[in-house]
Write a structure and sequence with these properties.
It contains ten helices and twelve strands. The chain has 473 residues and is α+β, with helices and mostly antiparallel strands. Bound molecules: adenosine-5'-diphosphate.
Length: 473
């Protein structure tokens, strides 16, 4: 507001002063022109009565007549070449017969137009005086035979100028007032939402993450507020997620640790047969393995959240990776009596990223398929190329996933049947890791499943189209 006023005030002042001075000059020039014109006209009239003999009585009445008719009201004095007054339009205080020695008259008697503005103590007024030469002939070069002296009050001009001054003053005041009001409203429009933003940011900094501010308008401030809300929501979500994650991790760690503790306690406190002892050590080993797996998975997840695809943008053949995983895992299927079918085309299926991570995705998917498919079932893995992607389907005839839980299985630590899955060795991180990896690689993963009939997991990864011979891995 202050800045606005600092700008508008000098501008208005300079503009008003300039306008005022210009108008004053204009009025003065105009008044002077009128007086000179009246004087010149009067000179024409009086010339005839001054040329040879001075016709005093006629001159007096003529001067009075002209004086009364001149606008603005003007005092008209006629002097001869000796500066003696021979006509005066005023009767009271008439200067008739006296000598009038004035600068303006001297100028007029030299053939020029004399002019001046002065303050008259007598009439308490500014007056303008003009003296015009009277020549014996119109185009005569001889010295003037007399002069006409005119004086008019500037009262009217000063009155007009006074009115203008008032007008300019009030215009300036009105402008300042309007600017003050407008800038106040404008400032409030900006400062209110900014204040709300600052307050919300402050609250967030203090740990109160549930912040949402009213979006004031569609302008920049509005967009900022909108963006702030999005950010606040995201931070809120991430923090809640992190808290849930930490809670889940602690929970997952507690069970094996408690089991370990009981096992160690038993070993310490009870005498045991070597046979029984071996069983206990077997259990210890199993629980330690669980813990190791959990920590490895967690590390994997954390690592993934800090990687970008570009960091491992290596081109490689997905076909080779799939064949490797299939070979590694097929004897597990045989052992579990689950039929394992694979259909990998001869095409190279070139993709880009980290081969190790991609291997992990299919390892997790096939591991789940095996885990959740009973003996006598079937698991198949199929791959094919689309225009821009490589598609892979892992299908099983296992127990399937209930419809309303299909969305949740990719969340960390989610298990459909908590107790059973834990027995099966799962901790609910396998699919979360798989999804993270696929997304980091710019792909998608989804599931289709029918409870009791089986599940199909679809992975779609961006295909790399290479012209030269690919580097086989
Ligand atoms: P887990 O380590 O428990 O296998 P995942 O994240 O891999 O964790 O899977 C999460 C849950 O999704 C599993 O506990 C299971 O309930 C369900 N699930 C995953 N794959 C399958 C599948 N092929 N058939 C049935 N249920 C599955």
């Amino acid at each position: 507001m202050l800045y606005f006023l600092l700008v508008i005030l000098p501008v208005m002042l300079v503009a008003s002063l300039t306008l005022y001075n210009w108008l004053k000059h204009y009025y003065f020039v105009h008044q002077e022109e009128m007086l000179v014109r009246s004087g010149t006209l009067a000179a024409e009239f009086v010339r005839g009565y001054m040329k040879d003999d001075i016709d005093q009585p006629r001159l007096i009445s003529l001067t009075e007549n002209i004086g009364h008719q001149t606008q603005p009201p003007t005092r008209l004095i006629v002097v001869d070449s000796k500066k003696n007054v021979i006509g005066d339009s005023l009767r009271v205080n008439s200067k008739l017969g006296k000598k009038l020695d004035r600068v303006e008259i001297n100028d007029a008697l030299r053939g020029e137009i004399g002019r001046s503005v002065q303050y008259s103590e007598e009439s308490r007024n500014w007056i303008m005086q003009v003296a015009v030469p009277v020549k014996s002939d119109e185009n005569d070069n001889s010295p003037p035979i007399g002069a006409i002296f005119l004086s008019a009050s500037l009262l009217e001009v000063y009155q007009i100028l006074g009115d203008i001054r008032m007008l300019l003053f009030w215009t300036t005041m009105a402008a300042v007032f309007l600017v003050a009001v407008a800038s106040f409203l404008l400032a409030r429009r900006f400062s209110e939402p900014l204040g709300a933003l600052t307050l919300a940011a402050q609250k967030m900094a203090d740990g109160d993450l549930d912040q949402k501010i009213k979006i004031p308008s569609g302008d920049e401030i509005g967009r900022l507020a909108g963006q702030f809300n999005v950010m606040a929501e995201r931070i809120n979500y991430m923090t809640r997620n992190l808290q849930a994650f930490a809670a889940n991790v602690s929970h997952e760690l507690r069970t094996p640790l408690a089991t370990l503790s009981i096992l160690i306690q038993s070993l310490k406190e009870h005498e045991m047969e070597p046979e029984q002892q071996r069983d206990f050590f077997e259990d210890l080993d199993q629980q330690t393995q669980r813990l190791t797996n959990l920590v490895t998975d967690l590390l994997e997840l954390t690592k993934l959240q800090h990687t970008k695809v570009k960091e491992h943008g290596k081109h490689f053949s997905l076909r080779n990776i799939l064949l490797e995983v299939i070979e590694q895992m097929s004897h597990w299927f045989t052992r579990a009596n689950v039929k394992f079918v694979h259909e990998i085309p001869v095409a190279v299926l070139m993709i880009s990223g980290s081969p190790g991570q991609i291997r992990q995705v299919f390892y997790n998917l096939l591991d789940n398929a095996l885990k959740f498919t009973g003996a006598g079932g079937q698991v198949s893995i199929t791959a094919w190329e689309e225009a821009d992607t490589v598609e892979i389907k892992v299908e099983d005839t296992g127990k399937g996933i209930p419809m309303d839980e299909q969305k949740l299985i990719f969340e960390r630590f989610f298990r459909v049947d908590t107790a059973r899955s834990r027995d099966e060795g799962g901790i609910g991180l396998g699919l979360a890791i798989a999804r993270e990896i696929v997304e980091v690689h710019g792909g998608t993963i989804r599931v289709e499943s029918q409870e009791g009939r089986g599940s199909s997991f679809y992975v779609s990864l961006p295909r790399v189209i290479v012209t030269q011979k690919p580097e086989e891995k």
